[in-house]
Amino acid sequence: MPVFINPVAAPLGPIRRVRRLGEAIGRYFAAGSESVPFLGSGGLWHAPRTVPTLATATGR
Question: Can you give the pLDDT of all 60 residues of the chain as single tens digits?
Answer without folding.
Answer: 788 787 667 777 788 988 999 899 999 999 999 888 888 776 555 555 666 666 676 766
